[in-house]
Write a structure and sequence with these properties.
By secondary structure, this protein is α/β, with parallel strands linked by helices. It has 9 helices and 7 strands, in the order E-H-E-H-H-H-E-H-E-H-E-E-H-H-E-H. Helices cover 46% and strands 13% of the residues. The protein has a 5-stranded parallel beta sheet, sandwiched between helices. The chain is globular. The structure holds adenosine-5'-diphosphate. Adenosine-5'-diphosphate binds next to helix 2 and helix 3.
């Protein structure tokens, strides 16, 4: 099973990717997390990536393509994978085509998660995360039990540098400019499955199974 997840920032790609990974027993490859880990470790990739990420711009294609190509060669990705946050530009989609062609594999699904800008801005600006265990909170909808502290490990919660309002707006623009054209590209290949990004967390596993098993382009609320 090889799946790509496309959708605007804050649509819930990470949450869906994790559930799909659990259902099918395949690894989730999240370029945003890989890049943030490189930034934290201050590797050469991280040092270059940080300035782009802080501004809400895409990290240069060559750098990300190289990172993903290497990751997909690891043994755990041989039996399938979920790409969360990649490809994000036409050049990245071309690079992925090349990787797949070389290994004689094909994508099974491209899941498009839709959500309106208003909801995205609310979600991201009120998102807080635990820098230690990665747990994610929302100040109104999923607040931590103790103010500013992670429920799981009691670490102080932080706001991602790129979850500030003007950077969120730029990320949305970049999504429209660079990533949205990929929807057409994959639509022509008959791979797109659509679902909404505001489905109740409890209903997500069943919805994802249904959407991924459907043959035709479908809306999750149909
Ligand atoms: P979101 O999808 O919510 O914007 P991500 O964690 O996927 O958050 O990405 C955060 C930032 O990391 C992006 O704004 C971009 O700078 C960088 N990034 C992640 N994936 C890619 C990619 N495939 N190509 C270029 N930059 C990327």
């Amino acid at each position: 099973m090889r799946v790509v997840i496309l959708g605007p920032p804050g649509a819930g790609k990470g949450t869906c990717a994790k559930i799909i990974g659990e259902i099918y027993g395949i690894p989730v490859i999240t370029t945003g997390d890989m890049l943030r880990a490189s930034v934290a470790r201050m590797t050469p990739i991280g040092l270059t990536a940080k300035s782009y990420m802080d501004r809400g711009e895409l990290v240069p294609d060559d750098l990300v393509n190289e990172m993903v190509t290497a990751r997909l060669k690891e043994p755990d990705a041989k039996g399938g994978f979920i790409l969360d946050g990649y490809p994000r530009s036409p050049r990245q989609a071309e690079a992925l085509e090349k990787i797949l062609k070389t290994s004689g594999k094909k994508l099974n699904h491209v899941l498009h998660i839709e959500l309106e800008d208003e909801t995205i801005i609310d979600r991201l600006s009120k998102r807080r995360s635990c820098p230690k265990c990665g747990a994610i909170y929302h100040l109104d909808n999923k607040p931590p039990k103790a103010l500013g502290k992670c429920d799981a490990c009691n670490t102080g919660l932080v706001q991602r540098d790129d979850d500030k309002p003007d950077v969120i707006r730029r990320r949305l623009e970049v999504y429209r400019e660079k990533t949205q054209p990929l929807l057409d590209f994959y639509e022509k290949k008959g791979l797109i499955k659509v679902m909404r990004g505001d489905i109740n967390l409890m209903d997500l596993p069943a919805t994802l199974k249904r959407v991924l098993n459907s043959r035709v382009r479908t809306k999750s609320h149909d």
